[in-house]
Every structure is written in C-alpha cells, then in structure tokens.
Amino acid sequence: MTADGTGNTAATLPNIDQACFRVPEAHLLDVKAPSQHRPRILLLYGSVRKRSYSRLLVFEAQRLLEAFGAETRIFHPDGLPLPDAAPDDHPKVKELRELAAWSEGMVWCSPERHGAMSGILKAQIDWIPLSVGGVRPTQGKTLAVMQVCGGSQSFNAVNQMRVLGRWMRMFTIPNQSSVAKAFNEFDEDGRMKSSAFYDRVVDVMEELVKMTWLLRDRAPYLVDRYSERKETAEELSKRVDLAKAVPDQGDPSLAPQASCVTGCCGSSVATK
Questions:
Q1: Beta carbons of 40 and 102 less than 8 angstroms apart
Q2: Local mean pLDDT, 10-residue blocks, the chain (272 residues)
Q3: What fold does the segment set 40-215 form as a domain?
C-alpha cells in the first residue's frame, strides 16, 4: 500500500473485509446543502434543590446560547425515576429521550458531590440509550460540560462527564467551566455576577455553537466506521443488547439505518 492509501489491501491487510474498507476522502466532508435551522442544544443539570446552582448556571448558559443563535431546550429532572426503576414509556423518560433525539448538541452541568458528579445528572445520562436498534442517538453530537463547586475550584465532575461523553460517542468540546464557591457567584434573582467565571461560561457556549455548526452536517461521515459497517443493524442491536430501549418504533428518524456487510459496501451507519 502506498502513502496515499492506494494499493492492494487484500495482500497487505489480510484481516480486512475488503467490501467494508474505505480510505477517508477529504471531499466527503464537503457539505452540499448545509442545514439552515438554528443549532439545537439540550441542557441538563444535576440538582433539584429549590436554589440549585447547577440549574442557575444552565439558565445562564441558555441565555447565552440563544444570544449566539441556538435553539435550546432544558430538561427538568424532577420526577425522573432511577434507571431501570420504571418502564421506558414513563412520561419523564419519554420526554428526555425525545429531547435527546431532537438535539444536535448538549450541555451537561452538575454539582460536585463527594468528589464526583451528582447521581441526578448521571441518572439522566443513564436513561439515554447508547443504541436504539442499530442507531446510536447521541453519536456525533457535540457536548459542553460544566460544574459548580461548593468550595474551591475542582474538575472531578467535568472530568467524569468527559468520560461519559466519550462513552456516548459525542464530540466533547475542549473548553469547559468550573465555578468555585458557586453560592457567591449568583445574585438574589439567580443571575450570575460578572466575573472571570462568567466570562468562561460565555467562552464555552460560544465554542459549543461554533462546533455544532461545524460538525452537525458532517457527523454521519465522521462517525461512519469500519467495524460497524461489517455488522447489520440487527447484529449491532444484539451485541449491545439495547433493542428494548427503542422509544418510538413509528418514528422513521429512529429506524435502524442500513449498514455494510460483506458484498454490500454502498451503505453506511448514519446517526440522523
């Protein structure tokens, strides 16, 4: 095989399924018909206290996102059951999954509790299926992570959320926000005060909108991978054992996409 990717892969890579092997091509990243709607961002927070600082920070992030041109939705976790403690058709579970499917990017914000993200935020992520049939509903979407701290600045929660974002196959943006002593950073009306912490939140939301613009129309190609092209949608669903997580069999946008198997290399696993 030559440096430009040409050559006889059958001879040099005998373990490769030739029908599903593709050399990446830059021109396939060109967007012929860019989406015209505003970037769709879902925001999740990790506390249900009356004065929840993660909720207040999400409200501030929502204002910024809309000022940057995004369309936003916030999921309120009050009443969301623990994972596996209720059927998939529970109203709050359905609401969360529908919002996840609607979104093109997300913001996760959690308080740090005992050196970790909150169980409330983790429960929301656990209710979002990794796979619906042969399609991964969060794959290829953008993600920004933030945390609020009761004391000095820490990064334990955002680091955990980055791991979860990777597990959900999302593009987590480089920038992040950690607000130290959050009880000092909001006024009586719940608005965030002017500070370096606030400026960082502005930076994070600006970057999220830019990255969502950049990636949303390219995600199907970026997440198309060799191993999954070898599997049919049915085989993929069996492997991850999450076919029961299908929220709406009648929604064509959630139907399994065709995937490449030996002898059929013209299709790909798509996320939208």
A1: yes
A2: 60 88 93 94 96 96 98 97 93 95 96 93 92 77 96 91 94 95 94 96 98 94 87 66 52 43 38 36
A3: Rossmann fold (3.40.50)
Contact by Cβ (8 Å): 225, 270: no
Segments making up each domain of the chain, as ranges? 40-215
**Sequence letter at residue 60:** E
DSSP-assigned letter for residue 186:
B
Tokens of 128: 């979002």
Report pTM.
Answer: 0.80
Rg over alpha carbons for the chain, rounded to the nearest Å, is 20
Per the document, the length of the chain is 272
Query: Are 99 and 42 spatial neighbours (Cβ–Cβ below 8 Å)?
Result: yes
- Around Cβ 261, how many Cβ atoms within 10 Å? 16
CA distance 147 to 154: 9
